[in-house]
Amino acid sequence: MAVVGVLALQGSYNEHLAALRRIGVRGVEVRKPEQLQGLDSLIIPGGESTTMAKLANYHNLFPALQEFVGTGRPVWGTCAGLIFLANKAVGQKSGGQELIGGLDCTVHRNFFGSQLQSFETELSVPMLAEKEGGSDTCRGVFIRAPAILDVGSDVEVLADCPVPSDRPSITIASGEGVEEEVYSKDRVIVAVRQGNILATAFHPELTSDSRWHRFFLDMDKESDTKAFSALSLSSSSRDSQDGSKNKPLDLPIFE
Questions:
Q1: 106 HSE (CA, 13 A, CB side)
Q2: Active-site annotation, residues
Q3: CB-CB contact of 193 with 228 (8 Å)
Q4: 143 annotated as belonging to a binding site for a ligand
Q5: Which domains does the chain possess?
Q6: Residue 115 region, left (φ>0) first, then alpha (ψ -120 to 50), else beta?
Q7: Is 72 known to sit in a ligand binding site?
Q8: Tens digit of each residue's pLDDT (9 = 90 or more) over 54-85
């Protein structure tokens, strides 16, 4: 029985847990380092990244989270979770914030603007249809969302989207304190995978489309297959069951 941890410090962790229940998978809340033990994979949800970082520091979670990523077990970051997993983040508040790292990319913390500039759009994701069936598109819910400015050679781009016309200019301060433009392309990356890390700038947990969660669980199966193959053992599929009680949702589910 696969056990998926969901970092439950703040944000849309209840929605991820509900999405896992809908596909018959056990999800557990994670707030302390010891609760990472025994997990098959981990989801870092969307939320307010600065608040989440402060709470993670308070519970001394960063070393344990970095160790978990380093084990090769699947980790998925959505929105704020994407920021945490990036090796580099720009557009941060003064002083920045601590990152877990592991994903070879540069993310802009608030690329799409304020809460008022949140939006929904259809994203072309052929890989998702190839792996999990259904349409070549999925609904992307962007809430005060980040975006990926560039990626390393080992990072697979899964989805991008047009840059909204009302997006404010994004700038960072140079070493001399002069503001300079850092992005001027028509499209921006919003979903990537690198090895055991999956990251999306949008919120699949706020839609009724379960394919992203299924894709993430399949990453765990891939990890198991590779591990067993290295030991010259045959791999077997895992049964899953819903072992959690229903919990109220903090945010609406968009059809």
A1: 8
A2: 79, 203, 205
A3: no
A4: yes
A5: 3-166+187-230 (3.40.50.880)
A6: alpha
A7: no
A8: 999 999 999 999 999 999 999 999 999 999 99
